[in-house]
Amino acid sequence: MAGSGKHSATGRSTGSKRAVVVGSGPNGLTAAAVLAREGWQVDVYERGPRPGGAAKSNDSLGPGTIVDLGAAGHPFGVASPIFRELQLEQYGLEWLHSEFPLAHPLPSRPAAVLHRSLEATAAELGRDAAAWRRIHRPVTSNMDAQLENLLGPMLKFPKHPFRLAAFAPSALPSASFLSRRCFEGPAAQALFMGSAAHAIAPLAHPFTGAFGTLFGGLGQTNGWPVARGGSQAIVDALVKVISEHGGRIHTDAEVTDLRALPTADATILNLTPRQVLALRGPAADQLRSRTRKRLGNWRYGTAVHKVDYLLSEPIPWTDARVGQATTVHVVGSAGELLRAEELAAAGRLPARPFVMVGQQQAADPSRASGSAAGFTVIWTYAHVPHGYVEAYPGEVAELIEQQIERFAPGFRDLVVFRNETSPAQLEAADPNLIGGDVAGGAMTGLQTLLRPGLTLDPYRLGDGLYLGSSSTPPGAGVHGMPGAWAAAAAMADLR
């Protein structure tokens, strides 16, 4: 373990309890912020030169550009109960919205558009309007209550059981079943299936309907905003909370042996199961055999291949409204999307993959400033097989560009520069992204609900050892809730 880097904060808490956190992604930082506010002495250890994990931003497209490494749109971030409790807006975080949270271009017809209102969205869906309202109203009518049900362990009695029961009919089936059963038109089907694709799983699998309903519901209530200045702003706000309460962040400090860490009442790991099992030291060696087996059975899922673009001007979408959305799902019809996700999960690169396009600049003009003023920064990724290695350089970028060109002829002519990040490069940048899996483990089968495996106690690994990553409930997303739950477990044990 290397020494503290330049990001170490000064000052110490006078609290008698001490915690160390391994990994400074949003979940690790959230755990540290929660404990530091409670008076704990907190040290965070980060292997890289900067905190933030996959929530960092950089200028990889050139001076004056802001490019998000991982998540770019934040429907869960703006709605996160723990981010609200930590009052991150008081530490510089600002959410910015474009005209539309989401758009989904369709072949030979106007795009499907998600509005920040259930009624406005339904009004454009014609004969599917009533079904759209019926599916989404159980979450949009009181999103905060549903998030209290859903952003935590699944094997616990829900805080609002009747609201959860109302959500169940659209949560338990597959997205493809619900789409076929409930909607007749291509717009409603595409909007719903595109939201469900954030599960990064085959959309014929059970529970994927929950993703379609919840992501759509979030967009129609709180929106899918971006953070002003990049997702790094979320990290920076969390770091300020930690520093204000005396916590310290040690960068360039990789942890492979828990014995190298200071003695602590609680050690919280912002790691995935494979990394936990690779740790050395008595605490790691004494994991119960059933815990080791459960972690060893953990499966990693479909990957992403990321390509960022610097364009001479905004994307020339055939439907101009698409340019006013911060998030765009580019794949075509619901049927094309279903096929693409099945192929990627089965280990085959789709000829027409699901492509997510981030147009953060539609809400945040600072993404291209200074010497980059007048240019447009575009963030994209395609769903590809786990750990996919290209048959030739530029293979996936070529498919991404073909997909965008279908709905924005002339896109290629605007490309000034592009920067690719393969699944292997994503993992090298953040070891939690194993094989390019950005969800901390496959969101399929029982892993959708039981993270990390069948246990009533997902955050406790052993005496004083806790897991608080996207491999625990409620899963992936920049919302900090796994870290908050792990911190709560540590505080409960030390009371």
Could you describe the 3D structure shown?
- The protein has 495 residues and is an alpha/beta fold.
- It has a domain at 18-58 and 75-94 and 228-299 and 433-494: FAD/NAD(P)-binding domain (3-Layer(bba) Sandwich), CATH 3.50.50.60.
- Helices cover 34% and strands 16% of the residues.
- It has 18 helices and 17 strands.
- It has helices spanning 26-37, 75-79, 81-85, 118-123, 129-140, 143-150, 161-171, 175-182, 186-196, 208-219, 232-244, 273-278, 282-285, 289-296, 334-345, 395-407, 423-429, 481-494; strands at 18-22, 41-45, 57-58, 67-68, 95-96, 100-106, 109-114, 226-227, 248-250, 266-269, 303-311, 325-330, 355-358, 376-384, 415-421, 460-462, 465-467.
- The strands form 4 sheets. The protein has a 7-stranded mixed beta sheet, sandwiched between helices. Strands 9-2-1-10-17-16 form a 6-stranded mixed beta sheet, with helices on one face.
- Residues 1-14 have low confidence and may be disordered.
**Relative strand content:** 15-25%
Helix percentage: 25-40%
- Number of E-state strands: 17
The CATH class of the domain at 18-58 and 75-94 and 228-299 and 433-494 is Alpha Beta
Structural class: alpha/beta
Q: Can you say what the CATH homologous superfamily of the domain at 18-58 and 75-94 and 228-299 and 433-494 is?
A: FAD/NAD(P)-binding domain
In angstroms, what separates the terminal alpha carbons? 31 Å
Provide the CATH topology of the domain at 18-58 and 75-94 and 228-299 and 433-494: FAD/NAD(P)-binding domain
CATH architecture of the domain at 18-58 and 75-94 and 228-299 and 433-494: 3-Layer(bba) Sandwich
Mean pLDDT: 94
